[in-house]
Amino acid sequence: MIAALWETALTDAGGTVLGPFPRVAPALSCIAEETAFDAAVLDVNLHGQSVLPVAEALVARRVPFLFATGYGAEGVPAAFRNRVVLTKPCRIRTLLAAVAELVASPAGSW
User: Fold this and answer.
1) Which of 57, 67, 82, 90 counts the highest number of beta carbons within 10 A?
2) Euclidean distance between CA atoms 59 and 91, whole angstroms
């Protein structure tokens, strides 16, 4: 339900949403197949699967991303604890501001 709500909010704010992807394999396929996208929002746990392979694929493509998780920063893989972490539930305006900041940031500053 949260993913659908966030998808609507991001779309209403002018974004194009490629997901949500509840599993790792479809997310990796999207990353491999899409020619360009501006940012990603990742949950740490995708139906029991770690999102780590998705995060690594985004790093390889130099796509900025943040984590949105109910686990808090402690739930984020250690290699990515320098990323923005939104703790669910969070306000829509917080999500939109964080995504806008990712998109506006110079490459590599995230």
Assistant:
1) 67
2) 26
Answer for the pair 41, 54: CB distance below 8 angstroms, yes or no: no
Is residue 100 classed as helix, strand or coil in its secondary structure? helix
The arithmetic mean of pLDDT across residues 68-75, rounded, is 87
Residues in the chain: 110
Neighbours of 73 (CB within 10 A): 14
Q: For residue range 6-38, what is the model confidence (pLDDT) as tens digits? A: 899 999 999 989 988 999 999 999 999 987 889
The CATH architecture that domain 2-104 belongs to is 3-Layer(aba) Sandwich (3.40)
The tally of CA atoms less than 13 A away on the side-chain side of residue 93 is 0
With H, G, I as helix, E, B as strand and everything else as coil, classify residue 78.
helix
Residue among 69, 94, 73 nearest 3 (CA): 69
